[in-house]
Amino acid sequence: MKQALVDMNTKLEQDLWREFTRGSQEAFRALYDRYAEVLYAFGRRYTSDSELVKDCMHDLFLDLHTYRAGLALEVNVRFYLLKSFRRKLHLALKKPAPLSLDRWISTDPTLPMGTFSYGIEEEIVADEKQREALHALARELNELPARQREILYLKFKHELDYDEIAAIMQISVPTCRTFVYRAVKQLRTRLEGFSVAYLFLLLFA
């Protein structure tokens, strides 16, 4: 069921992209509406400067609109936008920036589960032991090297494949796979008794 929804969304985005490259302003606005929040959240993982993130978003969509006639018709829209946006951010920041996941962890135990990013609500995770495991997962993620954190974010949040992640990160596909394997293995060891895959599903919801 989930894969069917992913395929449906992918087809819709590809249709919008083709219409946009052919000059449709409505398709351009639809793409912006679908990805503005996604790109903003992605950018805030690299910098707390919200205005810089917004400026880079503006520049990205301006470039897309200006050069739309020369863009490829068949692309993975999410991959293309994330890769292009990341490049603009890094140029703006003058250096590669580590992905920050600090906001996943609540420093106040009285705060609701909404203190996790990506809208995890307390009613979704009603089990106290499960909530503790999610907090532990977030802490362990923050202990990973920045590059591993970023790869996991792209893999499990944005559901990109290894080829796409490797292209964004400018590493080889085998290296990308190794980063994921080592990170997941480490997390499974430290979170024994819980399904890391299931916790990822909740954390990146």
Automatic annotation (TrEMBL):
CDD domains cross-referenced by the UniProt entry: Sigma70_r4
Keywords: Sigma factor, Transcription, Transcription regulation
InterPro entries: RNA_pol_sigma-70-like, RNA_pol_sigma-70_dom, RNA_pol_sigma70_r4_t2, RNA_pol_sigma_r2, RNA_pol_sigma_r3/r4-like, WH-like_DNA-bd_sf
One of the protein's GO biological processes: DNA-templated transcription initiation
A Pfam family hit: Sigma70_r4_2
Entry GO MF terms: DNA binding; sigma factor activity
Residues in RNA polymerase sigma factor 70 region 4 type domain copies: 135-187
Family: Belongs to the sigma-70 factor family. ECF subfamily.
Protein name in UniProt: RNA polymerase sigma factor (Sigma-70 family)
Phylogenetic lineage: Bacteria, Pseudomonadati, Bacteroidota, Cytophagia, Cytophagales
